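Working notes for the structural subgroup meeting. M.R. asked for a predicted model of this chain before we commit to crystallization trials. I am recording the input and output together here so anyone reviewing the notebook later can reproduce the run.

Input as submitted:
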Amino acid sequence: MPRYLGKDRIAILAALVAPLAVSAALVPFRSDLLNTNVALVLVVIVVAVAANGPRIAGALAAVSAAVWFDFLFTQPYQRFTVTKSADLQTAGLLLAAGLVVSQLAARARRLQVIAITDAGYLARIHDTAELTQSAKSTDVVIDHVRAQLTDLLGLRGCRFEYGSLVGYPPRLEQDGTVAWRGRHWDVDRRGLPDEEVELRIFSGGRFYGRFMLNPTPGTVPPLQARLVAVTLADQVATALDTTI
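Returned structure, recorded in token form:
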């Protein structure tokens, strides 16, 4: 089983079980606890699940937390019925807050700029930034980044296209994910798609062109490498922005 797939399955299982387990543990003390405090505890559980699993895990945890809060902490107990308006509001806020916070946590997990301690990654970023400042031609920067992307992502090849967007190839996003046909492509489990992947070059809302990445079948570049690739491409945007 791939490591990420196994981790995601564990997170989804935790999303279903953890809110129930915590709620059950608090039941003996429910006469001494305010329902708002119980709700806050469950929100913490939702955040913990979302921060360590896929987006769906956070959403499931939020729904699970709201369901068990209703079942165990609102009267009449052990029934999916709420008689007090205050409890109904608390349950609704728990669900809404859980969903929002879980999605934010999942986004933060995906968008986090990983502490790049690998000397090779740091050197690529540093060298490209220096070249961007000193190169007399943007073509020099583009060729440098093209070679860096090929090595960094284990590509069979890489080319740069100026001009408008053509077609709907898979796209490497700014957060290191790949979008294709309106869906998220699971790179960590499936590797890069077996066709050209575009990496768009924008600056100030202006589109300059794109790198077309030709993946090697079976290659699974880690998220850190993909984020570095996006950072390198941004250097090209900086170079083009100052010369065009």
